[in-house]
Design brief:
About 70% of the residues lie in helices and about 0% in strands. The mean pLDDT is about 85. The chain is flat. The protein is built from two helices and no strands. By secondary structure, the chain is an all-alpha fold. It has helices spanning about 10-40, 45-75.
Length: about 80
């Protein structure tokens, strides 16, 4: 926790607000940079890496399909229409 000076007037509030805004902006830029690094596709250097990437993505797609099937079987009754008599 950071120590802050006591707020005595409107000028103190405005100064603190500006400090917080710059901190938030810096954090936002850092998060944007990290997100960009995570989501950009890096070109593969050779065919081995390309094949490994394709296999990895295929296994991930299969895993997503299996989890979706499992969830649908377990909780599918929540999404089915109920019969009206």
């Amino acid at each position: 926790m950071t120590q802050t000076t006591p707020i005595r007037n409107l000028t103190d509030i405005q100064l603190r607000k500006e400090q917080l805004r710059t901190t938030i902006d810096q954090s936002g830029e850092k998060v944007a940079t990290l997100w960009h690094d995570l989501t950009t596709v890096k070109p593969s250097a050779d065919k081995g890496e390309m094949v490994t990437g394709i296999i990895s993505k295929g296994i991930m797609a299969f895993d997503v399909a299996m989890v979706a099937t499992k969830l649908y079987r377990r909780y599918g009754s929540l999404f089915k229409k109920k019969k009206r008599w």
